[in-house]
Specification:
By secondary structure, the chain is an alpha+beta fold. The chain contains 28 helices and 17 strands. A hairpin with a 4-residue loop joins strand 16 and strand 17. Helix 20 packs across helix 21 and helix 26 runs antiparallel to helix 27. The protein is globular. The structure holds adenosine-5'-diphosphate and magnesium ion (MG). Magnesium ion (MG) binds next to loops. This is Glutamine synthetase.
Length: 729
């Protein structure tokens, strides 16, 4: 029996035997995290103060104190049964990385004991050669090291009965180039903090710190593990490269409103519990549009912590799913013809005085602060749309962006009807002659429309890649499997840059003698005029928008190899270098790494297509043809006229046609790959993989394979079909 039918058989015997704790969330929340509260308990006063100063003010921890913190951490971890520790980091491969060491050691006199010293806490040297470096290593130094990032708390990962203390770290080369997602993110957040505080001080001198906030919404599919294992494409690339559309897809939209199936619900509660223990503040779970598609979202947090938590969540989900004999698919487009997975990044900025800078204010004065940050965001997105586009570019996301349910590759901003009106008012009413009285009236008028504006929250435009949703912007074009750090690094650094310019522009007007508030209003007006091209309230899925965007001169780059060009323009180099986020060498290395990742992903998919076509599809089709032939010959031998086996002949013929084309195209695909592989330049090679390999062959091979699926006897078909993957559980 094929794996497919075994899996289907097993499904009917499926039972929920995994025990899921039903303890109250607040009693388990953060149980496996070395929180400040735990630190207070396990550390000396001196060590605690030093840790606190490092978390709050970025102060360096010295070696002696590190030893004492390490001891405290070990004592806490051991009280929970932990035997090993690891530096935990986010390399550019897109997953998280660990290298476990035990606390266990043997002293020179032979005594065996557990130990964790300050050096081991602060720094480790994982073998960097197995992680991508984009040529940095050749140019600089061979080794890399991980360095403790105290701003993110240590935590314990439980796998079965094994428990490991994880120390969040950044990953850098010996000469200081960052090799991970986290290091540049922290730098971008620092740039934003500085620039935003200065602008806040126009309105409130008490603000001394601004933190960017992130609440991600993670979409995923969950399917039966045994069915998934019978699909080599799902096992190897997380996506089905073939599969005919099922009779019932998502057209009834009954999944979105339906109740969560029991087996999935059980799994959700289990992984949620694991996440709560790790301090991930999950809040919502619900069905998504496509069958077997779901979403999970937390309460928002500081960006750097939220990024860690999302990376952890993806890992936890995958592991917990195995316990339930389920498989999580986080790929951007696991199935053709139905919705793909996204990861909306809800983003805002908060002051240490407790103000959300993207929340419309309660007084005319605080409204001006809101408008300042609101308009600066629009300007940042307008000026650096190409970089935002590049920050979400990946082979997986190419399948999703611009497909009919996902935001297009054109970056535009949706602000809603009322805020559009407010922006128009400012644009027309603020002029050179604009005086204090005009300003006072305008401020009041704007303030009056605020209650209406709040109603606007419900007026959601689902088709926009970057939308204002009442008190935050939602960057919707982010792919589901992406590390949020990449788009967050870009968004925060372009915001920092724009705010710095804003400060300069306003100060220049003040110097010329303008009153502060008038100078601010005039600069806001100028920014609205300069960036209103990026505002779009209509249907982002429509063909008309593509034409309109082209007319406006907005970039529309649908494929990754070309979208990545934006990373290495002189504008980008200047931006990142000036804000101390990437050196030119680091930027070029990253560009190279992203291109290489793209090439490898397409290469793997192409190979899988070839393997499946030659080893599964064609042999199955031929087997069925033989049956038809036997039948035809039998009927012939019985002396029946051709009219009796006309249909059989026709099917036989059709199958031959499809088999022929599949075979030829797979052969040509292999040749195209060979040619692409010989290309020296990484960018040219990535473009070849995109146009000569993927675009030329993927769809056409799939078309004929899916036709065969519809023709061949179901009993022979070895790959689980869409209807089984999506509806059986
Ligand atoms: P929807 O699915 O309608 O977009 P959700 O409620 O699922 O909305 O998700 C909204 C997300 O936005 C949540 O993760 C929430 O925590 C986050 N969020 C809310 N306020 C902020 C904020 N000020 N900064 C960042 N994220 C926020
Ligand atoms: Mg959303």
């Amino acid at each position: 029996m094929s794996l497919r039918f075994q899996a289907i058989n097993d499904l009917s015997n499926q039972t929920n035997d995994v025990e899921v704790s039903s303890r109250k969330i607040s009693t388990i929340f953060g149980e496996n995290v070395f929180t400040l509260k735990t630190a207070r308990e396990y550390l000396s006063d001196e060590a605690y103060k030093s840790l606190l100063a490092s978390i709050k003010g970025g102060k360096k921890i010295d070696r002696a104190v590190a030893g004492s913190i390490a001891n405290g951490m070990r004592a806490w971890a051991e009280s929970k049964g932990v035997t090993h520790f690891t530096h935990w980091f986010q390399p550019l491969t897109g997953t998280t990385a660990e290298k476990h060491d035990s606390f266990f050691t043997i002293k020179s006199d032979g005594t065996a004991l557990e130990q964790f010293d300050g050096d081991a806490l602060i720094q480790q040297e994982p073998d960097a050669s197995s992680f991508p470096s984009g040529g940095l290593r050749a140019t600089f130094e061979a080794r890399g090291y991980t360095a403790w990032d105290p701003s993110s708390p240590a935590f314990i990962i439980e796998i079965g009965s094994g428990k490991t203390l994880c120390i969040p770290t950044i990953f850098v080369s010996y000469t200081g180039e960052s090799l991970d997602y986290k290091a540049p993110l922290l730098k971008a957040l620092e740039a934003l903090n500085k620039a935003a505080v200065e602008v806040c001080n126009y309105f409130d001198k008490n603000v001394t710190k601004v933190t960017a906030t992130l609440g991600w919404e993670q979409e995923y599919f969950i399917i039966d593990e045994r069915l998934a294992n019978a699909r080599p494409d799902l096992v190897q690339c997380g996506r089905t490269v073939f599969g005919a559309a099922p009779a019932k897809g998502q057209q009834l939209e009954d999944h979105y409103f339906g109740s969560i199936p029991e087996r999935v619900y059980h799994f959700m509660r289990d992984f949620e519990n694991e996440c709560y223990k790790l301090g991930i503040p999950l809040k919502t779970r619900h069905n998504e549009v496509a069958p077997s598609q779901f979403e999970v979202a937390p309460i928002f947090e500081e960006v750097s912590v939220a990024v860690d938590h999302n990376a952890l969540l993806m890992d936890v989900m995958d592991r917990v799913a195995r316990r339930h004999k389920l498989k999580v698919l986080i790929h951007e487009k696991p199935f053709a013809g139905i919705n793909g997975n996204g990861k909306h990044n809800n983003w805002s900025m908060a002051t240490d005085t407790g103000v959300n800078l993207l929340s419309p204010g309660k007084t005319p004065k605080t409204n001006l602060m809101f408008l300042t940050f609101f308009v600066n965001t629009i300007k940042a997105v307008h000026d650096y749309a190409d970089l935002l586009r590049a920050s979400i570019a990946s082979a997986g996301n190419d399948h999703r962006l611009g497909a009919n349910e996902a935001p297009p590759a054109i970056i535009s901003v949706f602000v809603g009807q009322y805020l559009s009106k407010v922006l128009n008012e400012i644009e027309t009413r603020v002029s050179d002659k604009f005086d204090e009285q005009d300003e006072a009236i305008l401020k009041l008028d704007i303030h009056r429309s605020i209650p209406e504006l709040m109603l606007d929250n419900t007026d959601r435009n689902r088709t926009s890649p970057f939308a204002f949703t009442g008190n935050k912007f939602e960057f919707r074009a982010v792919g589901s499997s992406a590390n949020c750090a990449n788009p967050m690094t870009v968004l925060n650094v372009i915001m920092a840059e724009t705010l710095q310019q804003f400060k300069k522009d306003v100060d220049a007007l003040i110097e010329k003698g303008d009153k502060k508030e008038i100078a601010i209003m005039q600069t806001i007006q100028k920014y609205i005029v300069e960036s209103k091209n990026v505002l779009f309230e209509g249907d982002g899925y429509s063909e008309a928008w593509h034409h309109e965007a082209e007319r406006r001169g907005l970039p529309n780059v649908p494929t990754t190899p070309l979208a990545l060009d934006a990373m290495v323009t002189s504008k980008a180099k200047h931006l990142f270098e000036k804000n101390n986020v990437f050196s030119v060498a680091e930027l070029e290395a990253r560009h190279e790494i992203e291109l290489e990742k793209y090439i490898k992903k397409v290469q793997i998919e192409a190979r899988i297509m070839g393997d499946l076509a030659l080893n599964h599809i064609i042999p199955t089709a031929i087997k069925y043809q033989n049956e038809l032939l036997q039948n035809i010959n039998g009927l012939k031998a019985a002396g029946l006229p051709e009219s009796h086996y006309k249909t059989q002949l026709e099917i036989l013929n059709k199958i031959s046609e499809h088999v022929q084309i599949v075979y030829e195209k797979v052969h040509a695909l292999v040749e195209a790959r060979k040619i692409a592989n010989n290309i020296e330049n990484t960018r040219t090679k990535a473009i070849a993989y995109c146009t000569q390999v993927k675009e030329t062959y993927f769809d056409v091979i799939r078309y004929h394979v899916d036709k065969l699926e519809a023709l061949v006897d179901d009993e022979h078909w070895s790959l689980p079909k869409y209807r089984e993957l999506l509806f059986l559980r």
